[in-house]
Amino acid sequence: MYKLDAAITGWINSLSGNSLLDHVVITISNLGVPLLVLAVAAQWWAGTERTKTRHILIAAGLTFVIGLGINQIILLFDQRLRPYDAGVTRLLIERSSDPSFPSDHATATFAIAAAFLIHNLPRRGLVFLLAAILVSFSRIYIGTHYISDIMGGALTALFAALLVKALYKPETGVDRFLTNIL
To answer: Is pTM beyond 0.90 here?
Structure first.
């Protein structure tokens, strides 16, 4: 399985080398997560169904944090080398000091998309899903992750979204308190 993972990762990374495209993809990689977080936060005051939207925004934030927390637990047990350290990819940005699996970028972006999709805001969810795919692709392209790191991050995000959906219910006291802030 590793050979297939490395082959696909190496092929995607081999697409790099065009300075303009490299610059665009590096920018997507660097700004993707913060821009998605801003896109979520900006919706706090938007729309006609504010209570429902705010519930989903809080669920997205919880999914984001829980997903990244799960990643930290996984890192206690798996210290996978980055693909550039294994000679699979050529790195286009600064080296990272943490292990490769799972991808925090993938977890963060897919967490947002999964929260919107699971909580039945499909159009917004699909936009966030496309953004998550783009950011995640950029992480492979620039040489920082294997494709399986991305899939692991996406699965962590999905698990976190399902957990939040099961535990954070609309119209509870906590939900009413949080959705009425500001």
So the answer is: yes
